[in-house]
Write a structure and sequence with these properties.
This protein has eleven helices and eleven strands. By secondary structure, it is an alpha/beta fold. The protein has a six-stranded parallel sheet, with helices on both faces. Strands 9-10-11 form a three-stranded antiparallel sheet. The radius of gyration is 19 Å and the shape is globular. The structure holds nicotinamide-adenine-dinucleotide and (2S)-2-hydroxybutanedioic acid. (2S)-2-hydroxybutanedioic acid (LMR) binds next to helix 8. Keywords: NAD, Oxidoreductase, Tricarboxylic acid cycle.
Length: 331
């Protein structure tokens, strides 16, 4: 019995993500919120013969609070996507305010919910949610996640392509750590479940994983960024969270979390990184309370160490940008 709220549910990600959630028998309630079109999306989905009771709300008359009431999981794909030539950071100006408003709604209505942030730039929007929840006295770092699963899905797909074995596509697992933009995306190819064939151009593969989002933005040619693969990835991560809430043990997935979510694991990771970072995408073990354990990077090779080192300064800047938006709004 889990109610999931999707904020930004009428968008390119929101609609297919809500469809996938509607197919999950563990989801008993689906609260859809957007500033446009949610009644139609909800009416459409409500005809699917699965248990979830679907309700769609717009902004007026407390729609956000209604969508969030009773939600144990809140997924946020609200906000504008990139167009060619833009970076994810270029979205901050618009999306920061959108995410702040939605986080305020979470704090006011379902402060104990697991919050899964998809809206870009994830490296900065997650700190915004943290600061809003802190300001309202409801911050639990164990329950706040930046969704970086699409990077893991891409890394696994691209490695399976190189293996020239389509049947391997769903079994290849490549951990991706760091953050969710450009050089902050750090694939740990040395830890791939399937060894790479010899002769693979590793630099080109790393670049493709780090800038995979650009491929889609370019191909969509002004009509947005990844939506369907993101809905798939967001659903994959949400399913893990729902299973953990329902008591399943041993679920591990990479996600952008606060290192304070598990002080021992966070400290060990910070020691490995050689610096204190508030947020980092690491492999995280989940339980019904949220983050149970943050895993360290484990054995990584020299080129991966360089990639991690290159990610850190940008992550620090991105995190500060998110914090300052709430703490120093006059900047
Ligand atoms: N984390 C990731 O891996 C990842 C992957 C793909 C896209 N994204 C990001 O997800 C976001 C959404 O992408 P999209 O393609 O679905 O965009 P979209 O424009 O198709 O949909 C966004 C939706 O958000 C809604 N919205 C805007 N302001 C809102 C508000 N205040 N409250 C509620 N809803 C609001 C819009 O009405 C729209 O329906 C973008 O920021 C994009 O960059 C992240
Ligand atoms: O590339 C984008 O802007 C969207 C998303 O972050 C992605 O990785 O596809």
């Amino acid at each position: 019995m889990v109610k999931v709220a999707v904020l930004g549910a009428a968008g390119g990600i929101g609609q297919p993500l809500s469809l996938l959630l509607k197919t999950n028998p563990s989801v008993t309630g689906l609260g859809l919120y957007d500033i446009v079109n949610t009644p139609g999306v909800a009416a459409d989905l409500s005809h699917i013969a699965t248990p979830a009771k679907v309700e769609g709300y717009l902004q007026p008359n407390g729609g956000l609070a209604k969508a969030l009431t009773g939600a144990e999981v809140v997924i946020i794909p609200a906000g504008v996507p990139r167009k060619p030539g833009m970076t994810r950071d270029d979205l901050f100006k618009i999306n920061a305010g959108i995410v702040r408003g939605l986080a305020e709604g979470v704090a006011d209505t379902c402060p104990k919910a697991f919050v899964l942030v998809i809206s870009n730039p994830v490296n900065s929007t997650v700190p915004i949610v943290a600061e809003v929840l802190k300001a309202k006295g409801h911050y639990d770092p164990k329950r706040l996640f930046g969704v970086t699963t699409l990077d893991v899905v891409r890394a696994s797909t691209f490695v399976a392509e190189l293996l020239k074995d389509p049947s391997a596509a769903s079994s290849v697992v490549v951990p991706v750590v760091g953050g969710h933009s450009g050089v902050t995306i750090v694939p740990l190819l040395s830890q791939s479940s399937h060894p790479l064939p010899s002769g693979v151009d590793l630099d080109a593969l790393v670049h493709r994983i780090q800038f995979g989002g650009d491929e889609v933005v370019k191909a969509k040619d002004g009509a947005g960024s990844a939506t369907l693969s993101m809905a798939y990835a967001g659903y994959e991560f949400a399913c893990k969270v729902i299973k953990a809430i329902n008591g399943e043990k041993g679920i591990v997935a990479p996600s952008y979390v606060s290192l304070a979510a598990d002080s021992a694991g966070g400290e060990a990771l910070a020691n490995e990184l050689g610096t204190s970072l508030e947020f980092f995408s690491a492999r995280v073990e989940l339980d019904a309370q949220g983050v149970a354990k943050i895993h360290t990077l484990g054995n990584i090779n020299e080129s991966e160490k360089k990639l991690v080192a290159a990610a850190i300064p940008e992550l620090k800047t991105n995190i500060t940008t998110g914090h300052d938006f709430i703490q120093k709004p006059s900047l």
